[in-house]
Amino acid sequence: MSKHMPTEIKLHQKSRQLEIRFDDGARFTFSCEFLRVYSPSAEVRGHGPGQETLQVGKEEVNIVQIEPVGNYGIKPIFDDGHDTGIYDWDTLYDMGLRQQELWQAYLDKLAQAGHTRQD
Questions:
Q1: Total of domains in the chain
Q2: Which one of 1, 10, 27, 31 is most buried, by most CB atoms within 10 A?
Q3: Is residue 84 part of a domain?
């Protein structure tokens, strides 16, 4: 059972943002790019430590649909065809708390791999 339950989920396609409010009052806004590059799918995370695949060129990615997954999470469908990541509520909450740290880690990995974001 999740420790954190959402009370509201809003997709803002024009700004490519997903807003989630939780039952404890926490509110997080995620860019679709952030959610895509941190997808909990095997395609992104691999099947074990060190098997992650760095996602590049996702600056303009958007979510076209959100499917509920039981009572424990959501599965966003991205416009680049990615549709295998299931985000449970606790994962989204943790990502919200650590968003700045995770985003900086992503930017650092891009730089180390010789990639830059196209803003």
A1: 1
A2: 31
A3: yes
Q: What is the mean pLDDT of the chain?
A: 94
Rounded-to-integer distance, Cα 23 and Cα 9, Å: 12
Is the residue at 119 inside a domain? no
Query: DSSP states of 5-43 as a string?
Result: -EEEEEEETTTTEEEEEETTS-EEEEEHHHHHHT--SHH
The reported pTM is 0.94
In tens, the pLDDT along 106-116 reads 999 999 999 98
Domain that holds residue 78: 6-112
Q: Which amino acid is at 118?
A: Q
Domain assignment present for residue 118? The answer is no
- How far apart CA 85 and CA 34 sit, in angstroms, is 13
The pLDDT value given to residue 82: 96
State how far the alpha carbon of 106 is from the alpha carbons of 40, 73, 113, 117, in Å: 14, 23, 11, 11
If DSSP codes are grouped into helix, strand and coil, which group holds residue 110? helix
Q: Residue 108: its pLDDT value, please? A: 96
Rg of the chain's alpha carbons, rounded to an integer?
14
Whether 117 is in a domain gets the answer: no
